[in-house]
Amino acid sequence: MPGIHVVSDSGCDLPPEIVDEHQIAIVPLMVRFGAEELTDLTAKEFWARCRRTSVLPETSAPSPGSFAEAFRDAAAAGAEGVVCVNLSSRLSATIQSAQAAAKEVADVIAVRVVDSLNVSLGEGLLVLAAAQLVKEGKDLEAVADAVEAMVTRTRVIAVLDTLDNLKKGGRIGGARALLGSVLSIKPVIQLVDGVVEQVSKQRTRSRSLRYLADEVAKGAASDHFDRLAVMHGDAADLDEFVDLLIPLVPRERLLIAWVGPVIGTHAGPGVVGCAWLARP
């Protein structure tokens, strides 16, 4: 298909039906359970596997060749250029592979790689914004420039139910102090300049979810966002949390999705988070 194509990675956690609707190409990261390496796990399959094993998963970035293949596929489909939105460069080497691939295919197709400085649906909202701009007929530079301008307006905040995964993965940024905390706390974290920072430490799960809902309320008042994304990692109390949000954001403006294998590997089971894009 001619025009600009949008590529991202599997850290964006967009549901498959949305990926298909907007014709977004997803390059998967590798997820490992011990010696077993997988790239095709769905979110539900991933969390089911986590329930069956005590082995904590690990992730690794895609190869440059995986991105180059996606870029060449876009060129073969008649695309004039590609916008590739990736996981935070401060948390993953994924964007380095995308940048290397963009150079490799420079004689075939123009590629702009955008650092989302985000994860999960924080990244996903930027990918969707790129797809919408493409539908509006914007050219490559206009789409990439607009998405880059949105990065600092993207908010991601989440509640963790366990610290085990975050500790093993090492991607904790300014939240390092959490590791010395008692295991009973339910930390609230956020993405700040592409890294994980601690926001609050709550003593119970219900308090942490209430805190998260209160932060969404503040965001709704100050950021005037059009859409709220809610992501969860096999959270049994998701419906209870959504009930806290309905007075703040109408259900039709909620995008609810599973946290997939890539982010779930580091966030752990039970994670619940919210992402939104502040209006300029």
Describe this structure in words.
With 280 residues, the protein is of the alpha/beta class. It folds into two domains: 3-150, Rossmann fold (3-Layer(aba) Sandwich); 153-277, Hypothetical Protein Tm841, Chain: A,domain 3, CATH 3.30.1180.10. The chain is 38% helix and 26% strand. The protein is built from ten helices and 13 strands. It has helices at 16-21, 43-52, 64-76, 94-104, 120-135, 140-150, 164-169, 205-223, 238-245, 261-267, and strands at 3-9, 24-27, 30-33, 36-38, 58-60, 79-86, 110-115, 154-159, 186-192, 195-202, 228-232, 254-258, 272-277. It has a six-stranded mixed sheet with strand order 10-9-8-13-11-12, sandwiched between helices. It has a four-stranded parallel sheet with strand order 2-1-6-7, sandwiched between helices. Helix 3 (64-76) crosses helix 4 and helix 5 (120-135) packs antiparallel against helix 6. The longest helix has 19 residues, at 205-223. The two termini are 31 Å apart. The relative contact order is 0.17.
